[in-house]
């Protein structure tokens, strides 16, 4: 790893600096084309805010990968990038570039033309099929109780992979409700995937999640509360698809993603159950997301976002520290119980119970 440090720094720096420099441009483009969010009953931000931030993250991520592909493996006797040891890595990299471009373009179309739910699901399905076509799929898992591999038949491979990609895209999309929330959580997840790959000696593919870390960090200064720009569907679909793909590429890191993204995933499951029970269908928009409920109860945006960061970081760290697969299953169960307790508690609290995170009526001094 130390001999390839310059290459890793180049990938991170390119992703970060491109995203950082493109975000103000994307903001102006969003304003000029009127691709913007306005406050309404569900959106309670102040003012009209462009939702074209996904352009910057996509540009930063792609620029870093292009630089990685164009630069030589070594320069002036200094090694830059590790060699590809897996013969299938080039195929999956091509699938990553094509799939992420397709879903990003589709997300931009949704931001501009406000596509219907069926059109959005169709786009998500197509992007998942692109991943499958380039062997980015969930083909087998390890049984935590026997340590044996379970190899799925092809119909199950396709079904699980489609559910994985569409589920992750919708999780990130639904998570994008507070300033800096979706981008920050995705950054944390990508960082843990990168560390996991480095620990397993998968140095060449570890550059990919590192590029995502750089792109999200370059965007966050403009997206953190108070946000000057939102990521829009182009950004949330891009992040969800990329995290889903990176969880598979280079050997399954699905458990790492599940642990780090556990709270947002369980919130989506809760919403699907609750909305189906009360409204008959889960796609109805509303302020029943966990982060919205916490905001209505009386916590600040920054308190909620930082709490999400901490929750994801703690359980992402557990995914790295717990090498025994059975212990990871136990950690998932603990995560599920903790998240469920938070969801139930938040659902029972009245709006305005707190003011800036403190019980209403208590002297804030």
Mean pLDDT, nearest integer? Answer: 90
Uncertain runs are none
Major beta sheet summary: 2 strands, antiparallel
Number of helices: 13
Overall outline = globular
Radius of gyration: 20 Å
Count the beta strands. 8
User: How many separate domains?
Assistant: 1
Euclidean distance between termini CA atoms: 51 Å
Give the SSE layout.
Layout: H1 5-32, E1 36-37, E2 49-50, H2 54-70, E3 74-75, E4 78-79, H3 89-113, H4 117-133, E5 140-142, E6 149-151, H5 154-175, H6 181-199, H7 203-223, H8 232-246, H9 254-260, H10 262-279, H11 290-297, H12 301-321, H13 325-348, E7 354-355, E8 358-359
Antiparallel strand pairs: 1-2, 3-4, 5-6, 7-8
Provide keyphrases for this structure.
two-stranded antiparallel ribbon, 365 residues, mainly alpha, 66% helix, globular
Produce a short descriptive summary:
This protein has 13 helices and eight strands. The protein has 365 residues and is mostly helical.
